[in-house]
Design a protein that fits this description.
13% strand; 2 domains; 17 helices; Aspartate Aminotransferase, domain 2; four-stranded mixed β-sheet; Aspartate Aminotransferase, domain 1; seven-stranded mixed β-sheet; alpha/beta
Length: 487
């Protein structure tokens, strides 16, 4: 039985080993001292050893920690993006030394200098269960002792198990899942599935929409800033106002008249990056009815809203709507592993059965990610994360609206559902001041990608009540400072 020991490779049955060894021994190599590549490789090995020591927990002196901050900034400028730190409050609002990713637990994290912060951003929605939830970490660590990635040939029990679990918890007749690494790939897969099933190639998205930044999903992006540099994108994509089902129906009527084949309507249940935009209560039921009437698929992008974030397991359940395809991501990996999925019905999925290799991924749905996903769903159910989000979100939103009444010269709106909340300010400049000043006070929030005036509040769903109150208190202190013009 395999026990993890190094195994001896058998001698070649053709007896070629001695011939190969003799051939190798005759090869001439350059002298080591004249080999610049060897010198470069030694430098790389030194760099690797240094960072592996840091990863393994070697104790550092304060001066070494400060040097690490400086080196990290240098590395990002020289090897990541020169402008990476320009708009990051972890650089501009952190004082003399930038704030580095270092250690976190539950709803708090600290940098390598020991500065502590309350996490009210949640990794843009991936930390539904908090940072390093012990049950999720334990599951991944246990799977790591067995097998981290897939052989690509053997059947993976965890892939099948997680897909079964998703079939049980998703609404309607959604049954089959394709597991992948991130939300944009889930949307790409959903687009391919919609095209393959319908034989049509057009899509309808919404203004302000955010579905990812790879080429296909970017074509559904409702924000010029992210599109412009990469145009032309996929053709035959049109946009309608989010929350206006009459405009959607008019667009489908036009498509029918001119023979423009629409495969699917792709929508977020609640627009996250547009600023936590919640549609009218009758919007999603009417969209479902319209899509059925015109014979187009309805794709619900639940990458950010799924797994309890809005107070239901999936946001479409607020309106009892059953989509044809659902995209999941972010929190599906429990905040420990990258994991996403697109899920659909047996009828629609049948087009993939003709050739199971027509859509594939080397690392998508790997055993480590699936272990995280199974544990994340278990935690979501055991701790009633959707229920916690509903209760805490209602409390937080009421407090934010109270602040809006008292600081109306700064705040335009407070909105959202569950713990996907947004506070819109009178200008982007005010929003940036709020974000930066809150960071200095030890609270992490951020703006939304498609609405620079709106700041998102997206903490873990199991955040303690006392931390919610602390966030709100520090928010009010910050609003008061901005109103009074204090530096």
């Amino acid at each position: 039985m395999f026990n993890g020991q190094t195994q001896t490779v058998a001698t070649s049955p053709l007896g070629l080993r001695p011939v190969i060894d003799a051939k190798i021994s005759t090869l001439k190599t350059k002298p080591i001292e004249n080999d610049p590549q060897r010198s470069q490789h030694e430098e790389v090995r030194h760099e690797c050893r240094k960072w592996l020591d840091i990863i393994s927990g070697v104790m550092l002196e304060e001066r070494q920690h400060r040097r690490m901050i400086e080196e990290t900034l240098e590395n990002h400028v020289q090897f990541v993006n020169r402008q990476w730190g320009e708009a990051r409050k972890s650089v501009s609002a952190a004082g003399d030394y930038a704030c580095l990713e270092w250690m976190g637990q539950a709803s708090k994290f600290c940098d390598n200098l020991g500065r502590e912060y309350i996490d009210c951003l949640g990794g843009y929605g991936l930390y539904n269960a908090g940072i390093r939830h012990p049950k999720i970490v334990k599951a991944v660590a246990a799977q790591l002792q067995r097998n981290p990635l897939s052989s690509q040939e053997l059947l993976d029990p965890l892939r099948g198990a997680l897909s079964k679990i998703l079939a049980h918890i998703t609404p309607g007749d959604l049954q089959y899942s394709f597991l992948i690494n991130n939300g944009t790939d889930a949307v790409e897969g959903a687009m391919k599935l919609a095209r393959a099933y319908t034989g049509k190639h057009g899509f309808i998205s919404s203004l302000g929409a955010f579905h990812g930044k790879s080429l296909g999903s970017l074509s559904l992006m409702g924000k010029l800033r992210y599109r412009k540099a990469f145009e032309p994108l996929l053709p035959d994509v049109s946009f309608v106002e989010f929350g206006d089902e009459e405009e959607l129906e008019f667009e489908l009527q036009k498509a029918n008249k001119i023979g423009w084949p629409i495969a699917a309507v792709v929508l977020e249940p609640i627009q996250g990056e547009a600023g936590a935009i919640v549609p009218p209560n009758d919007y999603w039921p009417k969209v479902r009815e319209i899509c059925t009437q015109y014979g187009v698929l309805l794709v619900a992008d639940e990458v950010q809203t799924g797994l309890g974030r809005t107070g239901k397991m999936f946001a479409v359940e607020h309106w009892n709507v059953k989509p044809d395809i659902m995209c999941l991501g972010k929190a599906l990996g429990g905040g420990v592993m990258p994991l996403a999925a697109f899920v659909s019905t047996a009828k629609i999925w049948s087009v993939f059965e003709k050739d199971p290799q027509v859509h594939s991924s080397t690392t998508g749905g790997n055993p480590l990610a699936c272990a995280a996903g199974i544990a994340a769903i278990m935690v979501t159910l055991e701790e009633d994360l959707p229920g916690q989000a509903a209760r805490k979100g209602a409390y937080m939103l009421a407090a934010m609206r109270n602040l809006q009444e008292r600081y109306g010269e700064l705040i335009s709106a407070a909105r959202g559902k569950g713990l996907l909340l947004g506070m819109q300010f009178k200008s982007a400049e005010i929003g940036w001041q709020i974000v930066s000043r809150l960071f200095r006070k030890g609270v992490l929030v951020a703006g939304t990608m498609s609405n620079s005036e709106t700041v998102r509040f997206e903490p873990a769903l199991n955040i303690p009540d006392v931390l919610i109150d602390e966030i709100l208190n520090r928010l009010e202190d910050t609003l008061r400072e901005v109103r009074e013009g204090r530096i």
